[in-house]
Amino acid sequence: SFGADVRLDATSTSDADDGDNILQRGRFNDPSQLKLQVDRGEPSCLVRGADGSAIAKSRDRLGEGWFRIRCDRANDTVTLTVEDLESSTSTVVIPVTVPLGDVVFEPQTPLSIGRKASSDGTPTSSQPDQFNGALDAVWVSVGMCPTDHETLEGCEDAS
Fold first, then answer.
1. Which are the contacts of 41, defined by CB distance < 8 A and separation ≥ 6?
2. Distance between CA atoms of 54 and 46, rounded to whole angstroms?
3. What is the Cα–Cα distance from 96 to 71, expressed in whole angstroms?
4. Which residue from 113, 90, 92, 135 is spatially nearest to 34, judged by alpha carbons?
């Protein structure tokens, strides 16, 4: 599971925007990848493992204000949850189920926040997918079911 609280700025929905990465570990050609992003105002998460990849994407664009975006993986199900923190009423949950297999990273594989990073951790200069706006409370949890998502498949016995 991984996520963050986000607030977009005007660049995030303009033609100047080349993508808004919230967090990413692994690159497009790597055998495993985790990615949370808001491209053109549409939040999505990607989990790629040895057997396949799943992209859970909202068709709703984020508006003004703060949103809590999280991606949960339990077995072969990836779930994107988007909560409007301004109204506390709008929550979108999008599950996708495909065979994923193991998600394994070399220890030196960087986790980048707010943009892409090269395999050695340095910021990329070409298509950096820089996040435009504000990020807060960025987090990653590995190897445990989230305690506040008891309906997530495979996490029924989580405490």
1. 8, 12, 13, 61, 62
2. 6
3. 11
4. 113
pTM assigned to the model: 0.81
CA gap 156, 25 in Å, rounded:
27
Q: How far apart, in whole angstroms, are the C-alpha atoms of residue 47 and residue 45?
A: 7
Query: pLDDT (tens digit, 9 = 90+) per residue, 50-97?
Result: 999 999 999 888 888 999 999 999 999 999 999 999 887 667 788 999
Q: Which of 24, 20, 22, 2 is nearest to 10 (CA)?
A: 20
- Report the side by side order of strands in the sheet with 67-74: 91-97, 77-84, 67-74, 2-8, 133-140
Q: In the chain, at which residue ranges do the beta strands (DSSP E only) sit?
A: 2-8, 21-25, 33-39, 42-49, 52-57, 67-74, 77-84, 91-97, 111-113, 133-140
